[in-house]
Amino acid sequence: xxxxxxxxxxxxxGQHLIATMKLASFNDYRIGVVEDRLVHDVTACVPAWxxxxxxxxxxxxxxxxxxxxxxxxxxxxxxxxxxxxxxxxLAPVPAPSHVFAAPANYQKHIGELGExxxxxxxxxxxxxxxxxxxxxxxxxxGEAISxxxxxxxxxxxxxxxxxxxxxxxxxxxxxRAMEYVFGYSCLMDITMRIEPGTGEEERSMRKSFESxxxxxxxxxTADEVNAPGRLANRLSVNGxxxxxANTSDLIVGIEELIELVSSVLPLRTGDVIATGTPEGVGPxxxxxxxxxxxxxxxxxxxxVIEAAVTAPRAY
Length: 315
Ligand code: MN
Hints:
Blueprint: E1 11-13, E2 16-18, E3 22-26, E4 30-35, E5 38-41, H1 57-63, H2 65-78, E6 82-83, E7 89-90, E8 99-101, H3 125-128, E9 131-133, E10 138-139, E11 145-147, E12 155-157, E13 159-165, E14 181-188, E15 191-192, H4 203-206, E16 213-221, E17 232-237, E18 240-246, H5 254-262, E19 272-274, E20 282-283, E21 289-294, E22 298-306
Parallel strand pairs: 8-19, 10-16, 11-22
Antiparallel strand pairs: 1-2, 3-4, 3-7, 3-16, 4-5, 5-6, 8-9, 12-15, 12-20, 13-14, 13-19, 14-16, 17-18, 17-21, 21-22
Helix pairs in contact: 1-2
This protein binds manganese (II) ion.
Manganese (II) ion (MN) binds next to loops.
């Protein structure tokens, strides 16, 4: 058998040469390498002192990727895989310092929300900058989107490519921005819409309910995604396509977004940048199943459920 030239991006499982590196967080923040719908538990590549803060394991791994990688590959080879369906997938970076998000970053999305839009007409992320979603709103592919109990408000799906930062940086010029990208994931920016005149809460709050930032199903390392600026980005609800676009339509591309965010504050390892949603944004209701699929990055479906407890304030 002739193997292609082996570089550090290739994993060898038995006789199979694997050209992908998909990292997952699962169960109680264990670290997995996903291949052929199997999860290989490689948590042992992360130091035991992180057992006291297991949600930081993935961040440690990203920070120490060059040193940890070969140990991780050895572990992935030597452990039996668990069927993907038998584990609970969490957000691949479960506790980043920041989740940045671009508003108004696909031309055709601008204007489609009518009176419910809060971005000024004609302006994009280039003029508006970014907003923040609370990291505590992240969930993974094995979880659910939970809407406030009894709510009559409109809750929308937004289908976005997530960029995960690989090392700290400040004032990063766009020419060097891709050096700071560790990998990519799918991200839904779930949003409670404003109701003009009656419900005009702050954007950060409306987008930060627990479970309003599904991310996953895993983190695909940057070297596996040849053209992040040319990826199909699709979202469907109950099998019906709602959003169907391509990251080539991004107004502010990944490099410029990294330049923009890092011009304001330092980026930290594991930070997430949600790159914005294309047109086709629409409402979700309890009982829906929402699927996001981004080319070369992954696909996941989450159910929409109702929160168990009524909030003391009506939403
Ligand atoms: Mn969004």
